[in-house]
Amino acid sequence: MDFFASGLPLVNEETLSADAATEEDDEVVAMIKELLDTRIRPTVQEDGGDVIYKGFEDGIVQLKLQGSCTSCPSSIITLKNGIQNMLQFYIPEVEGVEQVVDDELEEKDANSP
Fold first, then answer.
1. Of 49, 52, 73, 112, which is the most buried if we count CB atoms within 10 A?
2. What is the CATH number of the domain that holds 64?
């Protein structure tokens, strides 16, 4: 209750989603983000995972899988057959989808014995 009484904003710049479309996004990126938010993310979240938009370059959409999707053996099938097919169906500019992993995880795995 103290927070609400303080008059501070409920949402600030830091809490806004990196996936939300911005004015700087071109039309294709905006369509990708919209499709992720309205069709793909809710389905993935039903299974305890999440998908985060990381970029779009040379026809390839870069996504990061989170939650139960990171350890799920069928996550590649979800990525390629589910997400990629849907994006390509609605957005012809999309040529493929690739999974992005955190740099920290890559470094940790590289330094493991």
1. 49
2. 3.30.300.130
